Amino acid sequence: MGSAGAADKKGRAAGHVLRMAWAALLLTVLSYFGAAHADTLLGATGYKMAGDATKMRIVVNFDREPDVKWFLLRGPNRLVIDLPRTRFALDAKDVKPRGLVRAVCYGDQGHGSRLILTGKGPFAVDRLDVLKNDDGGYRIAIDMSAASEREFDEALANQSLTTGSTVSTEKGERIGTGPISAPGHRFTVVIDPGHGGVDGGAESSAGTVEKDVTLAFAKELRDRLAAVGKYDVYMTRDNDVYLALDERVRIARQHEADLLISIHADTIAVKGLRGATVYTLSDKASDPEAQALADRENLSDQFAGMKIEDDNKEVTDILIDLIRRETHGFSMSFAHTLVGQLSTSVGLINNPQRSAGFRVLKAPDVPSVLVELGYLSNVKDEAQLLNADWRAKAAQSITNAVALFAAAKAGTATGG
Q1: pLDDT by residue (tens digit) across 300-344?
Q2: Strand boundaries in 244-398, DSSP class E
Q3: What does DSSP say about strands 123-132 and 69-73: parallel, antiparallel, or unpaired?
């Protein structure tokens, strides 16, 4: 019994050693194949996003060249980028939605991985490039801009021609053809009541708040334009809500607006100064007063705790270049017509047609003006702004100017 027990003990020990050996071998094999599998994964090593609600640039870095295919989906509007199986090592704060992008999703799909960018509305993919980095890695660079539903639908219809393409379009081809060329398009006006929500704007000594004045007047103007029956009319806001400046521009672009009219009623230190003023965009202000007003209006975003940064220089240069061409000419033309119409019905400031770098006027393809109805710092102007008859008279003058501008623009489009 003693020898048999010893033999059994030896056998159990040998079996245990054998099992341990097999386990070690299995672990080695699994580790080897796991490491080999990890080596085959594409590594997404960084993600950056910059821009606003009108134009965004997204850059995703990879450890080697990715094989990219992309396509668009609607309901909601999305850009879907298909990748090989990818190990995502991205910082959560970098992928936080901002600007034109409402949501960022990414992950493994089993046979591959996918990055999905959801827009706040319809958008255009201006370019999607795969580029080599100086450090040997690669990056995907995506440029998106706010567009209209029609433009998004056209991109969907042409999707078979663009899916999987990483070839950029030329800059000139990225510029919209404009709403006049769209079949069935009616002349479209977007009215922008300045300020709103936490951003009250200027306030008179009697307590009249700019955001209320601009909204009341914008509704009056909307109703008069709609009554003509020839235009599609939209408002950037129709209640007391905060709206960032670039969101206002995005709304105008997504409606393919032929005209954006931003309504304001500021205050100024010179109490005796009164009258309406019409502003257009320029990179250099027409006078110190125009520059001061633009500086004040451009700070509106700070009311929502937003960090104000200078526009990307390249984007700014492109926008200013575009605005100086046809769009700027249309803006100046309408401003001139509007001053002429207002001069017959309401009081105007000296030198009523001015210009400065207003952020809300920076849509590259939408003629835009900012109308300063009057100054809340002047008691006579304040009384007019609160008077329903005066508002009706001023709104009718703007409606008349729109009619003249729309007819002239239609003639330009049809007559060449």
Answers
A1: 766 655 554 544 444 445 444 544 567 888 999 999 999 999 998
A2: 259-264, 276-281, 348-356, 368-372
A3: unpaired
Q: In whole angstroms, what is the distance from residue 105 CA to residue 87 CA?
A: 14
**Matching residue, tokens 């006006």:** 189
Chain centre to alpha carbon of residue 355: 23
What is the H or E stretch that residue 225 is in?
helix 210-228
Return the H-helix or E-strand segment holding 106.
Answer: strand 101-108
Q: Give which of 352, 202, 349 is closest to 275, Cα–Cα.
A: 349
Mean pLDDT of 146-159: 87
Torsion of CA 346, 352, 357, 359, to 10 degrees: 10
Asked whether 209 and 201 are in contact (CB, 8 A), the reply is: yes
Smallest CA-to-CA distance from 98 within 333, 301, 284 is with: 301
Which amino acid makes up residue 187? F
Strand 368-372 vs strand 259-264: parallel, antiparallel, or unpaired? parallel
| Closest by Cα among 67, 113, 110 to 86 | 113
CATH code linked to domain 42-168? 2.60.40.3500
180-415 is a CATH 2.60.120.10 domain: no
Domain ranges for the chain, please list them. Answer: 42-168, 180-415
